[in-house]
Write a structure and sequence with these properties.
single chain, five-stranded mixed sheet, two-stranded parallel sheet
Length: 160
Protein backbone atom coordinates (compact mmCIF):
# COMPACT_ATOMS: atom_id res chain seq x y z
CA UNK A 1 0.00 0.00 0.00
CA UNK A 2 1.35 3.39 -1.01
CA UNK A 3 1.64 5.95 1.78
CA UNK A 4 -0.47 9.07 1.41
CA UNK A 5 1.28 12.17 0.18
CA UNK A 6 2.15 14.88 2.69
CA UNK A 7 0.96 18.10 1.11
CA UNK A 8 3.24 21.02 1.95
CA UNK A 9 3.51 24.63 0.92
CA UNK A 10 6.97 25.82 -0.03
CA UNK A 11 7.26 27.64 3.33
CA UNK A 12 6.32 24.45 5.16
CA UNK A 13 8.88 22.45 3.20
CA UNK A 14 11.60 24.99 3.98
CA UNK A 15 10.68 25.01 7.68
CA UNK A 16 10.94 21.20 7.89
CA UNK A 17 14.23 21.14 5.99
CA UNK A 18 15.67 23.80 8.32
CA UNK A 19 14.50 21.90 11.41
CA UNK A 20 16.00 18.66 10.08
CA UNK A 21 19.32 20.37 9.41
CA UNK A 22 19.36 21.92 12.91
CA UNK A 23 18.57 18.57 14.54
CA UNK A 24 21.25 16.71 12.60
CA UNK A 25 23.99 19.34 12.80
CA UNK A 26 23.45 21.18 16.09
CA UNK A 27 21.18 19.22 18.42
CA UNK A 28 22.91 15.86 17.91
CA UNK A 29 26.25 17.45 18.76
CA UNK A 30 24.78 19.23 21.78
CA UNK A 31 23.29 16.03 23.20
CA UNK A 32 26.44 14.02 22.50
CA UNK A 33 28.32 16.59 24.62
CA UNK A 34 25.79 16.24 27.44
CA UNK A 35 26.10 12.43 27.36
CA UNK A 36 29.90 12.67 27.39
CA UNK A 37 29.83 15.03 30.41
CA UNK A 38 27.42 12.76 32.26
CA UNK A 39 29.60 9.71 31.60
CA UNK A 40 32.60 11.53 33.03
CA UNK A 41 30.69 11.96 36.31
CA UNK A 42 30.96 8.26 36.99
CA UNK A 43 28.18 5.88 38.05
CA UNK A 44 25.53 6.00 35.29
CA UNK A 45 22.92 4.01 37.24
CA UNK A 46 22.08 7.02 39.43
CA UNK A 47 22.96 9.81 37.01
CA UNK A 48 19.91 11.94 36.21
CA UNK A 49 21.84 14.08 33.69
CA UNK A 50 22.79 10.96 31.73
CA UNK A 51 19.18 9.69 31.72
CA UNK A 52 17.88 13.10 30.63
CA UNK A 53 20.46 13.35 27.85
CA UNK A 54 19.64 9.84 26.60
CA UNK A 55 15.92 10.73 26.60
CA UNK A 56 16.66 13.91 24.65
CA UNK A 57 18.79 11.92 22.20
CA UNK A 58 15.91 9.46 21.68
CA UNK A 59 13.46 12.33 21.09
CA UNK A 60 15.78 14.00 18.57
CA UNK A 61 16.29 10.77 16.63
CA UNK A 62 12.52 10.14 16.60
CA UNK A 63 11.87 13.66 15.27
CA UNK A 64 14.57 13.26 12.60
CA UNK A 65 12.94 10.01 11.50
CA UNK A 66 9.50 11.67 11.46
CA UNK A 67 10.68 14.63 9.36
CA UNK A 68 12.52 12.38 6.92
CA UNK A 69 9.36 10.31 6.48
CA UNK A 70 7.28 13.45 5.86
CA UNK A 71 9.80 14.79 3.33
CA UNK A 72 10.06 11.43 1.56
CA UNK A 73 6.34 11.55 0.76
CA UNK A 74 6.07 15.32 0.31
CA UNK A 75 4.10 16.92 -2.46
CA UNK A 76 4.82 20.65 -2.63
CA UNK A 77 2.05 23.03 -3.64
CA UNK A 78 3.38 25.86 -5.77
CA UNK A 79 1.38 28.85 -4.56
CA UNK A 80 1.99 30.77 -7.82
CA UNK A 81 0.12 28.04 -9.70
CA UNK A 82 -2.88 27.84 -7.35
CA UNK A 83 -6.20 28.33 -9.13
CA UNK A 84 -7.92 31.27 -7.46
CA UNK A 85 -11.37 30.32 -8.76
CA UNK A 86 -11.81 27.58 -6.13
CA UNK A 87 -10.31 27.03 -2.71
CA UNK A 88 -7.44 24.54 -2.51
CA UNK A 89 -4.27 23.94 -0.51
CA UNK A 90 -2.05 27.00 -0.82
CA UNK A 91 -4.92 29.52 -0.67
CA UNK A 92 -5.57 32.25 1.84
CA UNK A 93 -9.31 32.55 2.33
CA UNK A 94 -11.34 35.31 3.93
CA UNK A 95 -14.72 34.08 5.17
CA UNK A 96 -17.68 35.59 6.96
CA UNK A 97 -18.84 33.68 10.06
CA UNK A 98 -22.62 33.98 9.84
CA UNK A 99 -23.32 33.12 13.50
CA UNK A 100 -20.75 35.46 15.07
CA UNK A 101 -21.00 38.21 12.41
CA UNK A 102 -17.24 38.42 11.90
CA UNK A 103 -14.64 37.96 9.17
CA UNK A 104 -11.98 35.28 9.62
CA UNK A 105 -8.94 34.52 7.52
CA UNK A 106 -7.64 30.99 7.01
CA UNK A 107 -4.59 29.66 5.21
CA UNK A 108 -5.32 26.21 3.78
CA UNK A 109 -2.29 23.93 4.23
CA UNK A 110 -1.51 20.22 4.41
CA UNK A 111 -1.96 18.44 7.74
CA UNK A 112 1.74 18.54 8.67
CA UNK A 113 1.75 22.37 8.58
CA UNK A 114 -1.54 23.02 10.35
CA UNK A 115 -1.32 25.52 13.22
CA UNK A 116 -4.56 27.10 14.38
CA UNK A 117 -2.72 29.83 16.29
CA UNK A 118 -1.28 31.04 12.97
CA UNK A 119 -4.59 30.64 11.13
CA UNK A 120 -3.25 27.65 9.18
CA UNK A 121 -5.89 24.98 8.87
CA UNK A 122 -5.46 21.53 7.41
CA UNK A 123 -7.18 20.42 4.24
CA UNK A 124 -8.18 17.37 6.32
CA UNK A 125 -9.78 19.32 9.22
CA UNK A 126 -13.57 19.80 9.17
CA UNK A 127 -13.32 23.50 8.20
CA UNK A 128 -10.63 22.80 5.59
CA UNK A 129 -12.62 19.93 4.07
CA UNK A 130 -15.72 22.11 3.86
CA UNK A 131 -13.85 24.99 2.20
CA UNK A 132 -11.89 22.94 -0.35
CA UNK A 133 -13.54 23.36 -3.75
CA UNK A 134 -15.74 26.30 -2.71
CA UNK A 135 -15.83 29.47 -4.80
CA UNK A 136 -16.08 33.14 -3.89
CA UNK A 137 -19.65 33.86 -2.77
CA UNK A 138 -20.37 30.24 -1.74
CA UNK A 139 -21.66 29.45 1.74
CA UNK A 140 -20.31 26.26 3.31
CA UNK A 141 -21.57 24.41 6.31
CA UNK A 142 -19.16 22.76 8.74
CA UNK A 143 -20.34 19.95 11.01
CA UNK A 144 -18.78 20.46 14.43
CA UNK A 145 -19.46 18.73 17.75
CA UNK A 146 -21.08 21.97 18.93
CA UNK A 147 -23.35 22.17 15.88
CA UNK A 148 -23.23 23.45 12.30
CA UNK A 149 -21.15 26.54 11.49
CA UNK A 150 -21.77 28.54 8.30
CA UNK A 151 -19.05 30.46 6.48
CA UNK A 152 -19.55 32.63 3.42
CA UNK A 153 -16.45 32.81 1.18
CA UNK A 154 -15.51 36.47 0.66
CA UNK A 155 -12.04 36.29 -0.92
CA UNK A 156 -9.60 33.70 -2.26
CA UNK A 157 -5.93 34.71 -2.55
CA UNK A 158 -2.55 33.03 -2.91
CA UNK A 159 -1.01 32.11 0.44
CA UNK A 160 2.19 34.11 0.04
Amino acid sequence: MEEKKNILTYAGLKKLEDELHDLKVNKRKEVAGKIKEAREQGDLSENAEYDAAKDEQRDIEARIEEIEKILKNAEVVVEDEVNLETISVGCKVKVYDVEFDEEIEFKIVGSTEANSLEGKISNEAPVGKALIGAKKGDTVQVEMPSGVIEYKVLEIERNI
